[in-house]
Amino acid sequence: MTNTMRANVFHGVNDIRVEQVARPRPGAGEAVIRVTLTTICGTDLHILRGEYPVRPGLVIGHEPVGVIEELGPGVSGYKTGDRVLVGAITPCGQCLACLSGHLSQCGHGAGYEAIGGWRFGNTIHGAQAEYLLVPYAQANLAKIPDDLSDEQVVLLADIASTGFSGAESGGVKIGDSVVVFAQGPIGLCATAGAKLMGASLIIAVDADDRRLQMSRRMGADVVIDFRTSDPVAEVMKLTGGVDVAIEALGTQQTFESCLRCLRPGGTLSSLGVYSGKLQLPYNTIAAGLGDHRIVTTLCPGGKERMRRLMNVVRSGRFDPTPLITHTFRLDQIKDAYRLFGERTDGVLKVAIRP
Amino acid sequence: MTNTMRANVFHGVNDIRVEQVARPRPGAGEAVIRVTLTTICGTDLHILRGEYPVRPGLVIGHEPVGVIEELGPGVSGYKTGDRVLVGAITPCGQCLACLSGHLSQCGHGAGYEAIGGWRFGNTIHGAQAEYLLVPYAQANLAKIPDDLSDEQVVLLADIASTGFSGAESGGVKIGDSVVVFAQGPIGLCATAGAKLMGASLIIAVDADDRRLQMSRRMGADVVIDFRTSDPVAEVMKLTGGVDVAIEALGTQQTFESCLRCLRPGGTLSSLGVYSGKLQLPYNTIAAGLGDHRIVTTLCPGGKERMRRLMNVVRSGRFDPTPLITHTFRLDQIKDAYRLFGERTDGVLKVAIRP
Amino acid sequence: MTNTMRANVFHGVNDIRVEQVARPRPGAGEAVIRVTLTTICGTDLHILRGEYPVRPGLVIGHEPVGVIEELGPGVSGYKTGDRVLVGAITPCGQCLACLSGHLSQCGHGAGYEAIGGWRFGNTIHGAQAEYLLVPYAQANLAKIPDDLSDEQVVLLADIASTGFSGAESGGVKIGDSVVVFAQGPIGLCATAGAKLMGASLIIAVDADDRRLQMSRRMGADVVIDFRTSDPVAEVMKLTGGVDVAIEALGTQQTFESCLRCLRPGGTLSSLGVYSGKLQLPYNTIAAGLGDHRIVTTLCPGGKERMRRLMNVVRSGRFDPTPLITHTFRLDQIKDAYRLFGERTDGVLKVAIRP
Amino acid sequence: MTNTMRANVFHGVNDIRVEQVARPRPGAGEAVIRVTLTTICGTDLHILRGEYPVRPGLVIGHEPVGVIEELGPGVSGYKTGDRVLVGAITPCGQCLACLSGHLSQCGHGAGYEAIGGWRFGNTIHGAQAEYLLVPYAQANLAKIPDDLSDEQVVLLADIASTGFSGAESGGVKIGDSVVVFAQGPIGLCATAGAKLMGASLIIAVDADDRRLQMSRRMGADVVIDFRTSDPVAEVMKLTGGVDVAIEALGTQQTFESCLRCLRPGGTLSSLGVYSGKLQLPYNTIAAGLGDHRIVTTLCPGGKERMRRLMNVVRSGRFDPTPLITHTFRLDQIKDAYRLFGERTDGVLKVAIRP
Questions:
Q1: Do the Cβ atoms of A175 and C312 come within 8 Å?
Q2: Domain count, chain B
Q3: Residues C68 and C139 reside in one and the same domain
Q4: Which three-class secondary structure state does DSSP give residue D40?
Q5: In the prediction, which pLDDT does D1 show?
Q6: pLDDT value, residue D277
Q7: Is residue A5 within a helix (H) or strand (E), and if so which, with residue range?
Q8: Which of A336, B150, B328, B343 is the most buried (most CB within 10 A)?
Q9: What ipTM describes this predicted complex?
Q10: Average pLDDT over residues C317-339
Q11: Which positions ≥6 away from C340 have C-beta within 8 Å?
Q12: pLDDT at A283
């Protein structure tokens, strides 16, 4: 057994390198998995471009599927060789935030920490590597049923968990009308989530033909290409105001358009990552008197969330595999970043096989 | 019986006049009450100043206590002479919004209408008059128990119903920490509402000594005078981030301060009426990843809401009478508006006796 | 225009007759519709057999589709000739129960009345007739979109609204495991409702081959024939305890079996109509310490509910038409009752065309 | 440092002995506290009488206040000497149940286990001892603010957490009417919980003068002595049916009386521990059509729950100290059990000082 491994290391803006680094060993309550499949997330692009700062030297990536290589003391019910899925968010389960049900805002044993549940490729080494140390392993190792492949579960770690949460936090009910702004991987999963929860009209908005096509496959009843139509006007014509609007991009335009599509009493469920100031025009919320709700959600994690999402895939009610359009080896990861960043060749998600 | 009555009529900006107008008669499903007590609301000041447009010729005011004078066809279970409280918001109970539980966004038999439940002194004649026509009377006439005086219930029509809803929509739970920005009549009732729902720390923010004193009486554990302290810094020092922040003024500063006081996963419950654009700085909501909620609420109405609020007063757990600092006759109403508008003499709410 | 109509009148136990009765005329707030399609419900069988008492002389039936014939004063937004669906439950929208959101326990303008929302064929004349008087018409006339046939909507009035509510009251979430005991028309719709809400494993229990076949069509992943398997043992083997168990029959055995299938913290959602005492063995609820919930639900009604359910049918996510296995004319209704009562010829629901 | 300690050991039915036993040492993730105050619970009486089986040799008791003596590896943020409160229920925070928010049904790292969160004095050694091993210490050690005494917090571990949960699970809202059957320590805390959550009418039922007196102090507006009045008839006369009925004893009579007091759509929140079969007469739940809810709750635990409850005590809104009527030393614990079991001398709760 060697003490090193190959990993994709962030060195600075536009500088990632696959290189040899120390292989992790688990401490108490931790596990190390051998990564068998992972992906690149839009957030990794933000890191690469310097738009989201992480420390140089960090291994990035946060969507791991793998096999348990080694278990630290105090982790029970698992054994070496178990195939596991680990969520992008790794709650400790034991801090004030976790015990209040706010797993994504995990304070690691203490109180609350904003976005504290996101550690992989952010504050600790990530998944674009041969091996990965999993903190709070007892709460985060989700065994993969034998009848599910790595490809069927890898997108549950982040994309599907986040996308579905758009519908869940929005409180979608049977018979609701829902609009989803932006049909990237997360928006597509939000569309699928709205369908899973019983929406009777799902409107998907984007400007990319392939994504709009895929949105129909994920459950959209109507698609709007904002290059050729005014989405707010179209949505209002179709519905008179939707029950739930889901934002899946992170821009002023999509945020504000969501608000303009809501009926009085409606909910904007926001998944995007924003920068700078957002404007909240007073007339979009009836000057504060329209009984509106705005809800933001970070990807839910933990092994129970992963277990549930894997069961959804097993039921056949949601199939994430069409979203994986390309696969690369770890040593080709720069090409994978380029393709993913340039959005060419109809790319949605790329899988990385260490 | 005369066909006219005295009423306070809006004629234009800064032009209200108590004059003789036609006395209303009830149609099907309607009632007419003889108003025995009413008040002036901050919204009435906005109308007077031209900041909220209503049609000239309209009788204004929306907080009525009275005695049933006449019942239209189809209203059952009431009789002439019954003392009743009518909420500021008069839902029809039979439109899509009402049947969905969004009573304040009542669409009057059809779909949803933003703020559609607010009709008195907005789209139909209001309560600053000797008589008042009550629409959808079956849903809106709340009989007053004999052991409650007019003074004990008049503020339930709007102020208390709105203020309490700040705590209710915020989802205050036993043991929560809550900050309430602004301690005008609505903010004071939000403070009382947070106490009623079991908050264990209530922080009230204002810059008026009398209001801060009153906030202690309504349940505040800590008061912050923003003339001498930075309320956000103080709240963060005391709590590390509150569970619920209630906005009760309607300005960029209070809205943004509320966001800055929230813990990750916390809720901003907004009661204010905003004008112009609101800024939502991305760092106040962890760039959209902090699991925050922003909820706006319009005053809940309907006879069931009024019945419940009257029971709260009967229980002795909330006493609104200290909030009525002055009383005027209807023909003195201009003086009342002046006092209320200038916020002199420690005024909180003025009662008007037609 | 004649003053009489044909209707199915209850005269006593096992004595119903299609005969000429007075044709209804609408009062204030009421409407009369010409019934174009209706059905027979299991409850009508209970009435026929004397198991549920109604007064002799009553026209029975409570699932009406029709065309507006006449509108009483005070009903707006409709016109003669509009095609409408009316729910089995007709809330007034204006009593304390309705204004609290408990539409099915409508007290008709006053307080609460147990099952008070159910009036058709119970306390007022019902739908198995050429014409039907609709009370509280403003709250209960749901216009049928042109692209939906009578057959597509008639089961929404009761069966689908009730069945879906089993999943809704059970709080089914994405990824839940659900068992549904009994796959009659309501159980089949409960199965469909669990699927609509995102359950990842739906287990249907019955002892009728055709019903078990139909349950797969409605969304069941696994079916259990209780003639050949022990359903509780099977469910526990498959799941270790379900998140939600739905009872759709109304017997001690199905009620208790549901409890025995629940995981700690699980919910029994009960739709059945019980007679006599139910036993609640203490070990099924961990002696009261298992954080269990038992929820009962009466069919939700009102035009907003009907609008939502029609939208679900339009979306193609639920098709109720396979549940209508037979159609009869009004004057053949005795044959229809016989077939429905004997459960022969694979009958699920029979439609009646006046 | 000695290796033994004094502890109250269960040896068999009616046989407990204070004796010298091995002093615990913490493993990974565990802590040992020196117990400074504990109590006897009704459940301990059940154990003593053989009504709830535990293994002979077990130290019993589950309501610990103490000082950290030793910390095992992997517990951070605490130090020897910290004063802590530990809930009766000690969730791991990392199993499927805990990650789903069902902390009391904790499966200890795996799935769900009914009542699995209750370990002290049930499946592991308990608190009636000089020292106590705390499992999952990171999730269960709640630091006690300096301004709170041991006496102020000891009842939060079980009694207050359970009692409040009766109101919380019942969903008590501002203006609700609530009846609480039985005013022992848990029922008294349920009364206090209903008050904390804004109930406007709280009716307490018992047959013990001192307990009824105390119930007024805890928030009851009306008390009913069932020796002299029929509580169901009285409650119906006062309210016409309550919104929430809380059961705090665990008998057929109190369970059924609660159901008979509910309005349609009301909730029975059950805290009692039942034995044998419960009867659920069909007419108490409108034959299953009354939109009723029955909810059972086990004491919520974990350090976040304890933190919140301590904040409630600090706020002055709830004072548990009057419920401690007697104090004994550990070596007098047999006398304490006798007094508590015989309910003489007005005993409510006895405190034990090791």
A1: yes
A2: 2
A3: yes
A4: coil
A5: 59
A6: 85
A7: strand A4-12
A8: A336
A9: 0.97
A10: 97
A11: C40, C45, C347, C349, C350
A12: 92
Say what the alpha-carbon torsion angle C248, C252, C255, C261 is, to the nearest 10 degrees: -130
Chain A CB contacts of C314 below 8 Å: 200
Report CA-CA distances (Å) from D299 to D86, D95, D190, D233, D268: 13, 18, 12, 31, 16
Same domain (yes/no): C311, C249? no
A291:B298 CB<8 A: yes
Q: Give the D window 140-199 contacts with B, CB below 8 Å.
A: 164, 168, 173-177, 193, 195-199
Q: How far is A295 from chain C (nearest CA, A)?
A: 18
Helices (H) and strands (E) in chain C — how many of each? 11, 17
Beta carbons of C307 and A175 less than 8 Å apart:
yes
Checking if the pLDDT of B2 tops 90, the result is no
What's the pLDDT tens digit per position in A210-247?
999 999 999 999 999 999 999 999 999 999 999 999 99
Domain boundary residue among D280, D296, D312? D296
Do D106 and D219 belong together in one domain?
no
Based on the fold, state whether residues C223 and C122 are members of the same structural domain: no
Q: Render pLDDT for D22-43 as a digit per residue (tens, 0 to 9).
A: 999 999 999 999 999 999 999 9
CB of A330 within 8 A of CB of A128? yes
pLDDT band at B1 (very low <50, low <70, confident <90, very high): low
In whole numbers, what is the pLDDT of chain C averaged over residues?
A: 97
Both tokens assigned to C33? 């519709």
What are the residue ranges in chain D where pLDDT is below 50?
A: none
The residue type at D290: G
Angle subtended at Cα A222 by Cα A216 and Cα A227, rounded to the nearest 5 degrees: 95
Main-chain dihedrals φ then ψ at residue A74, nearest 5 degrees = 90, 5
CA-based nearest residue in chain A for residue D307: A96
Q: Is residue C84 within a helix (H) or strand (E), and if so which, with residue range?
A: strand C83-85
Q: Would you call A114 and B293 a contact, using CB atoms and an 8 Å cutoff?
A: no
A205 near A231, Cβ under 8 Å?
yes
Q: Rounded CA gap, D164 and D155, in Å?
A: 12
Chain-chain contact of D74 with A74 (C-beta, under 8 angstroms) = yes
Which of C152, C174, C195 to mutate to probe the A interface, most A CBs <10 Å?
Answer: C174
Model pLDDT for residues C245-274, shown as the tens digit of each residue: 999 999 999 999 999 999 999 999 999 999
* Phi, psi angle pair for D124, to nearest 5°: -135, 170
Residue B189 · residue B165 · CB < 8 Å: no
Tell me the C-alpha distance between B209 and C107, whole Å. 48
Neighbours of B21 (CB within 10 A): 18
d(CA C26, CA C24): 7
Which candidate from D174, D200, D315 shows the least CB-CB separation from B197?
Answer: D174
Selecting from A77, A109, A304 the residue whose C-beta is nearest the C-beta of D99 gives: A304
Token pair listed for A3: 């003490």
The stretches of chain D forming alpha helices (DSSP H) are 42-48, 96-99, 137-140, 150-153, 159-169, 185-196, 209-218, 231-239, 252-261, 303-315, 333-342
Boundaries of domain holding C305: 4-158+299-353
Same domain, C171 and C254: yes
Q: What is the DSSP string of D206-239?
A: ES-HHHHHHHHHHT-SEEEETTTS-HHHHHHHHH
Q: Rounded CA gap, B323 and A124, in Å?
A: 55
C18: alpha, beta or left, given left = phi > 0 and alpha = psi -120 to 50? beta
Asked if D62 and D124 sit in the same domain, the reply is yes
Name the CA radius of gyration of chain D, rounded.
20
Query: Which pair of structure tokens corresponds to residue A245?
Result: 């609007």
Q: What is the pLDDT of residues B285-334, one digit of tens each?
A: 999 999 999 999 999 999 999 999 999 999 999 999 999 999 999 999 99
- Looking at the structure, tell me whether residues C292 and C177 fall in a common domain: yes
Assign residue A100 the CATH number of its domain.
3.90.180.10
Q: What is the pLDDT of residue C139?
A: 98
Judge if C122 and C268 occupy the same domain: no
